[in-house]
Amino acid sequence: MRVLILGGTGEGMAVAEALRRDPRFDPVYSLAGATRTPHPPHVQTRSGGFGGVAGLSGWLRSEAIAALIDATHPYAVRISRNAARAAAETGIALLRVARPAWTAQPGDRWTGVADADGAAAALGDEPRKVLLTVGSKGLAPFRAAGRHCFVVRCIDAPDPALLPAHATLLLSRGPFGIAEERALLAEHGIDTLVTKNSGGEATAAKLQAAREAGIEVVMIGRPRGDRVTAEVPDALAALEWLDHLHQTAPRGA
Asked: So which domain of life are we looking at (predicted)?
C-alpha cells in the first residue's frame, strides 16, 4: 500500500520510519521545502509544493497513493486544507495527525492571542526583553515593536529585513532541555516569551522554564483548518489507523 506522508513534525518522521520497516507499506515522505536543512527519514522523499489542490490530486492519482497522512505543523494551514480537499476529490483515505495543544499549568502567566499581529500588540508600550520563537517567517509584525529587545530563535536564518530593530538571532533546532532553556532566559534577561501553541515535547521545556521564572508567555493560538473525519494525536495511533486500513483494503491495494 502506497502512503503519502505530508511531513514536518516528529510524528510524521516516526510514522515514516515505522512504515519503512513494514513490508506492507510503501511510504513517500513529502516536505514543503520551508526548512533549508531538513532531516528527512530514510524513505523515498520529495520536497516542494504540489501546485495546489489540483496538483496534489493529480499526483495522488498518478502515484497510486492509497492513503494520505497529514502530519504537517499545526500552523501549516494551507497544505492541510489542500490535503483535505484533494482527499475528498480523489476518494483517498486521509488521516490528520494533530498533536494536542499545550495547556496552561498552575503558575503559568499566559496571554492568549489569535495571531502574530495580536502577539506584537500584546507586548504593549513598556520596553521588554522578549524571547521570540515563532519561526523565521512570522517575524514581520514585530518590526513595528521596536521599543522591545528581542532574542529571535529559529531553525533557519530569516530575511534580515524581517528582523526587529533590536534583535539577537539564535539559530538552533530542538529538542531543547530544561537546563538549556533556563540558562537562555537568564543569560538574556528575558521577561516575556512569545511562541506558537505547537504542542509536543520537543520545545515544551521553554514553558516550564518560563513558569519557574515567573515570565509572561504570549501564546499564539492555533489557526482553524478544514474539518476532517479522521484525526489522531500521535504516531502510534496513526500506525494503528493504517494497520486497520490495510486489513480492510481490497486485495492488491
From this structure: Bacteria
- Write down the architecture of domain 109-220 according to CATH: 3-Layer(aba) Sandwich (3.40)
pTM of the model: 0.88
Q: Which residue type sits at 145?
A: A
Handedness of CA 128, 129, 134, 135 (dihedral sign): positive
Q: Domain map of the chain by residue range?
A: 2-100+224-248, 109-220
